[in-house]
Amino acid sequence: MRLRTFLYHGTLRRNVSSIRDAGLRPQRGAWAARFQPDAAALVYAVDDEHRSSAILAIAGQMAKAGLIQRSENYSFDDFKNDLIEHGAVIVVNATTFRHCPWSFESGHPIGAEPGNWYSSECVSIENEMIGKEMLAWLKPSEQDFIHRYRDHIWK
Q1: Predicted TM-score of the model (pTM)
Q2: Share in percent of the chain as helix, strand, coil (round to 5)
Q3: Residue environment code for 142-154, b if the CB has 16+ CB neighbours within 10 A, otherwise e
């Protein structure tokens, strides 16, 4: 596997200023704890090839925070607008992150799933993306919205 320089963390825009001030601190967030109550306190990030995981993280946080209103008419355009208004992607240096391989090996903490990049240390940010810049980087697709994100939002 080639060495990564930067990784990306999906969050809510309203969290950016505190992340700028204090960095990303390892935690067992409410969204992750919903699926794995025994998860370790970690900082999660994705690489360029797994942007859809960042979209899922942002979508889940928007839903949990009540920033998305459930509606039968909720469209892909509505979703993109919500991402622009509420989402953020934090760019971090990959130095302190460890990758959990797809062929899960022992020695990884609970909560680190195959394909995850994680760090148990506080991570300072290198950059941030919000608004249309973030949306252009994430590149959400309508097919993924229909088959993955929409259902994920309403869970």
Answers
A1: 0.89
A2: 45, 20, 35
A3: eebbeebbeeebe
